[in-house]
Amino acid sequence: MTIWKAHPRAITMLTLLTCLAGHGQAALPPGVHDALDSQLGLHRGQDFRLADGQCRDCPTIPQALFYFRDEVIAVPRAGLPVSGHSSVARGKDDVRAWAASAEARQLAYPGLVWLGAPQLLPDAMFSAGGASLRLPGGAVLPARLVPKIATNLAYFDASSHAFFDARSVRVRGRLEQVDGAQRYTARTIWPNDFVIAAQPLALEPLKSKDGLVDYVRAHDGGARSAYSNRLIWERQPGAASQSRGRPVLGVMLNGAQGDDDEAYGGHFAIATGTMGARGEFADWIVNNFYGLDAYGEKGILAASVPMDNYLADLNSGQSYYRPSYMLVAVLNNPRTAVAYQGGVQRLYNQYYRHDIAYDGALNNCAGLSMDVFDALGWNIPARGPTHALMALAGYPYKAISKWSLKEGRKAYDYLSEEQTRLYPAVAFDAAGQDLLRLVSGAPGRVLTPFEQQLRSDVDALILVRIPQFPSSRAFGSAPVFSYDEYMARTPADHADWKIVPVEPKPFPAALRDGLAREPLPRSVMPWPVALAGVTLLALLLGAGWLARRRWMQRRR
């Protein structure tokens, strides 16, 4: 398949000129749809309009638009309620206060959804060699791939083409006029046979309390496994087969990469949407947190994004560099999914504004996602810190060896942080186990109102295994569940680690206001370390005094 090399900004401008004005619908040939003709999670696509981050009349905070200057996004149409943010409370404190208010009863719209491309082919098939796309009815469009990002280590190759060959696919991209002819530049390619419970599933419960861990680790993480579904619980026989059109809440875990020693921890996100008529989930919205202050090597942006983009974007799609696992809760009432989506939309506003900041230990993809559940009232049992005592020892070791108190603090934070906020795999296991306890009626604690609601709303729980798409990238594996497992996988000498360097993306000072100008005070030396240091010093001084006293007594 030929790669068309063009500047992303030029592509976006061409798109805006040809598509945004008047929504571009009338000019589209049969089989080519506007990207907003489908659902966007729990929202109707028609309630949005296409734009990019240069938009001057979008109901979106400017801090969010800054990150999508050259990207196609969907923004709410005029007059619709848009999620806001607190000017006095940060993060989950804001979400907790919002959840207790009347405002939370109706789902507002996100300030933006990252689409990446303005058109959608719901049902297409690549020709031999990938030079064209055949649409329903027989129409054929010349096809090209979106350019590979220069920093991306791997890309679509012959093995990728073989994977999609003779397969019905859903393709997001751009329809363009080139030398008087229409051409389609594909950005996202999603297999249409990846659906949930296309056939009635037999109930196959987990066999032990470690069942989710075993599922994730099976077949070395399942990067080369077949796509599959597994029904692990249903309220009554046949409940899962009645899931079409039902609201859903999905807990997503992505595995370890095979070519990056910093990425063995995997990734974590929460999805919401509605089960499709055939069990489709490509248009669910995934709420994806990544660091904002660096240019990612694959072009990943922190955003609410359609599932097919999240997994199958040719550059940033998770499925091109690791396997994935999803626990899907089929709901009989949308309120639980609405609550999460409404809460995380507020969190995104604070995140883009830098009222809260990404941190690999304290505010990573798992921690931020789990904070929303905590704020809503789902008290997922904690697992405790990784190594509390090692954290105390790790601080001086790193501080001295790296000659940096900041490095010491970083080591302390990683070793002392709650595991369900630190490790994506542990968050997935803890949330899944507790959800099973809730629905089975054995939670082992007094339930909050939200937990009672969650127990009442879930009708079925389905596990989904999504293999890695073949490409020139090395196959990934299961993510790690502990610090010890992480260190066992990485080279003993940090200089031997495979790491992809990234360039910083400075946030403009002019966009900082409110809480972003009032960063939370944080000492480079945590109080437990200081206390331990003072205690150790006191013990040493005491021992020295005692030794001197005994020496003086012997001399008498």
Keywords:
556 residues, alpha+beta, five-stranded mixed beta barrel, 15 helices, 18% strand, globular
In short:
The protein has 556 residues and is of the alpha+beta class.
Low-pLDDT windows of residues: 1-26
Overall shape: it is globular
Give helix % range. Answer: 25-40%
| Average pLDDT score | 89
> Distance between the terminal alpha carbons, to the nearest Å?
94 Å
Q: Quaternary state, please?
A: single chain
Largest sheet: 7 strands, antiparallel
How would you describe the overall organization of this protein?
The chain is an alpha+beta fold and 556 residues long. It is built from 15 helices and 18 strands. It has a 7-stranded antiparallel sheet with strand order 10-17-16-11-12-13-15. α3 packs parallel to α8 (365-376) and α9 (388-401) packs antiparallel against α10. It is globular. Residues 1-26 have low confidence and may be disordered.
